[in-house]
Amino acid sequence: MVVVLARWLAHGVTSVDPGPDPFPTGKLVLIRVLEWGQLAALVALVWFHVGRRLVRGQRLAFDGLFILAVLLLNFWDPLDNYLVFSFQYNAHFLNVGSWGGEIPGWQSPNGHRWVVPVAFVFGAYVWAFFVAARMGCAILDKLRSRYPQWSAGRRFLPVFAANALLAAVAEITFLRSGAIANIRPAPHLTAGQGQFTQWPLYNPLLFGAAFTAATALRWSVDERGHSFVERGAEQLRMGPRLQTIIRFLAVSAYMQVSYITLYFLPWNLLSLAHGPAPELPSYFPT
Question: Which among 17, 108, 231, 233 could disulfide-bond with 85, CB atoms 3.0 to 4.6 Å apart, if both were Cys?
Answer without folding.
Answer: 108
